[in-house]
């Protein structure tokens, strides 16, 4: 009865035709009766982007786990407050004296600014190429030997994750969090040798890149050849031993597991130290410092691609550490870090964006304790459209059937080009939030959230696609 009243209220407020109202109601009832959603929770909000009124409001003010829908908050707010041309900068300085014989009586000091995309494969950057550029710049500066250290000066102490990220996530490539210095998407590929038989132990072959000091210990076994990858990497941030547990499908040849780098700043220094030493440019040691000093005239510096590109890529491919980096940028800004971002600070930041009744725990959606409302999400998109312009918001959202992980949403459907959408998916959660252009030519923000279902994600996805098709055709 409450749900019917809410849709009736939206009908009265927006003066839609009786026939349209009936079609919207029937679409919702059909969605609700989908077998995979029996016993599950769902919420729907569809909002007129011009008037701001909700056209459909079903459980729209209930709390739901947003998963990666949360990235919309950070990506759009970052572009809004820091401008789409903003870039992160990483600089390299030399200290001490450079003698005539090429010996540096001092340190080489990196100063990062939180760039999540340094040597990022997602941004088409090569770690090997970037390391070679740095090495060549060191050589061209006349340095032949270093009687000092490779130093990374970080802006305070940053613990890269909030406290509520599940332990089975933090050791994997997608769960590393955002550090003050990140590289290679904080990912290391672990290649293992598998057997064609089930139940056999799995041996580690090598890693790429090879990172000195990081140890991977395999507790893996093979499962049936038609099973999925069920391997998980366990290890907290800063902890160098990593344990790989679970199963991988039986088969022939090497199998790749995507692990997280446990300490990107330290790992990069050790990787660079090895490269320099191999070239007979000897470095005595590496060191991490949690304070940045003022230096003049860097011997090398690089900028990230513009913030717009990073935000777009973060949404297209749901990159957690990109979004977490935006959280640090927005909430910590240039202040030295001292731990992790407090949820109270996240709350205070997003209250002006309409999230005063939300519970936001992290910067990417991995934390299962995150809670937002569908109505808040559609209102947020309305606010951002007013601040940035609708076309700008659409350009940052993934285009259905085309961009990133949205390329299979509404793929080859006639209305594919009329939908811009961010998905959010973890176990028993499947959400889609975005903007569509209706048959009338009007734009609507929408958020369809489903939690606590038992069944296949693809079945929930299909139900949401059918719901949106009906909305687009009838509005």
Characterise the protein shown here.
Helices cover 30% and strands 25% of the residues. Residues 1-13 have low confidence and may be disordered. The longest helix is centred in the C-terminal third of the chain and has 18 residues, at 457-474. It folds into three domains: 2-83 and 308-474, Beta-lactamase (3-Layer(aba) Sandwich); 89-158 and 264-304, D-tyrosyl-trna(Tyr) Deacylase, Chain: A, CATH 3.50.80; 167-260, no CATH class. A hairpin with a 5-residue loop joins strand 20 and strand 21. 46% of the residues are buried. The protein is globular. The chain has 475 residues and is an alpha/beta fold. The chain starts with a helix and ends with a helix.
Topology at a glance:
Layout: H1 2-14, H2 18-32, E1 41-48, E2 54-58, H3 71-82, E3 89-94, E4 97-98, E5 103-105, E6 108-111, H4 127-140, E7 145-153, E8 156-158, H5 167-170, E9 187-193, E10 203-208, E11 215-218, E12 221-223, E13 230-234, E14 241-249, E15 254-260, H6 264-278, E16 283-289, E17 300-303, H7 307-316, H8 320-332, E18 337-339, H9 343-350, H10 374-388, H11 390-396, E19 419-426, E20 429-437, E21 443-451, H12 457-474
Parallel strand pairs: 5-7, 6-7, 7-16, 8-18, 11-14, 12-14
Antiparallel strand pairs: 1-2, 1-21, 3-6, 3-17, 4-5, 9-10, 9-15, 13-14, 19-20, 20-21
Helix pairs in contact: 2-12, 3-7, 3-8, 3-10, 10-11
């Amino acid at each position: 009865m409450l749900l019917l009243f809410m849709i009736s209220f939206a009908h009265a407020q927006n003066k839609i035709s009786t026939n349209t109202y009936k079609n919207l109601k029937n679409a919702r009832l059909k969605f609700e009766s989908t077998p995979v959603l029996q016993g599950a929770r769902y919420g729907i909000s569809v909002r007129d982007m011009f008037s701001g009124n909700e056209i459909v409001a079903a459980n729209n003010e209930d709390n739901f786990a947003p998963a990666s829908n949360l990235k919309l908050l950070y990506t759009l707010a970052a572009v809004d407050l820091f401008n789409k041309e903003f870039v992160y900068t990483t600089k390299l300085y030399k200290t001490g004296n450079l003698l005539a014989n090429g010996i540096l009586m001092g340190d080489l000091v990196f100063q990062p600014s939180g760039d999540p995309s340094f040597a990022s494969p997602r941004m088409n950057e090569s770690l090997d190429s970037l390391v070679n550029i740095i090495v060549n710049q060191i050589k061209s500066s006349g340095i032949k030997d270093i009687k000092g250290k490779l130093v990374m000066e970080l802006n305070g102490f940053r613990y890269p994750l909030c406290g509520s990220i599940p332990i089975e996530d933090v050791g994997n490539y997608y769960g590393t969090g955002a550090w003050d210095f990140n590289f290679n998407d904080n990912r290391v590929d672990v290649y293992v040798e598998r057997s064609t038989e089930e139940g056999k132990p799995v041996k580690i072959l090598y890693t790429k890149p090879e990172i000195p000091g990081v140890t991977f210990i395999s507790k893996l076994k093979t499962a049936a050849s038609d099973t999925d990858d069920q391997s998980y990497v366990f290890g907290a941030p800063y902890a160098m031993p990593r344990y790989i547990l679970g199963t991988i499908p039986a088969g022939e040849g090497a199998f790749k597991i995507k692990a997280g780098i446990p300490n990107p700043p330290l790992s990069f220094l050790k990787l660079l130290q090895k490269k320099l030493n191999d070239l007979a440019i000897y470095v005595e040691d590496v060191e991490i410092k949690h304070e940045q000093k003022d230096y003049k005239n860097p011997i090398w510096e690089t900028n990230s691609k513009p913030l717009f590109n990073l935000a777009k890529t973060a949404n297209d491919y749901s990159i957690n550490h990109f979004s977490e980096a935006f959280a640090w940028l927005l909430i910590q800004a240039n202040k030295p870090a001292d731990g992790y971002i407090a949820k109270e600070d996240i709350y205070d930041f997003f209250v002006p964006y309409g999230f005063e009744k939300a519970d936001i725990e992290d910067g990417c959606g991995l934390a299962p304790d995150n809670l937002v409302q569908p109505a808040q999400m559609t209102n947020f998109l309305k606010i951002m459209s007013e601040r940035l312009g609708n076309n700008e918001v659409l350009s940052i959202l993934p285009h259905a059937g085309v961009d990133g992980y949205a390329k299979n949403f509404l793929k080859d459907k006639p209305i594919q080009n009329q939908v811009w959408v961010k998905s959010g998916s973890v176990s028993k959660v499947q959400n889609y939030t975005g903007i569509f252009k209706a048959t009338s030519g009007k734009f609507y923000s929408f958020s369809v959230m489903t939690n606590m279902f038992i069944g296949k994600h693809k079945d929930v996805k299909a139900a949401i696609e059918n719901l949106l098709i009906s909305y687009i055709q009838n509005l």
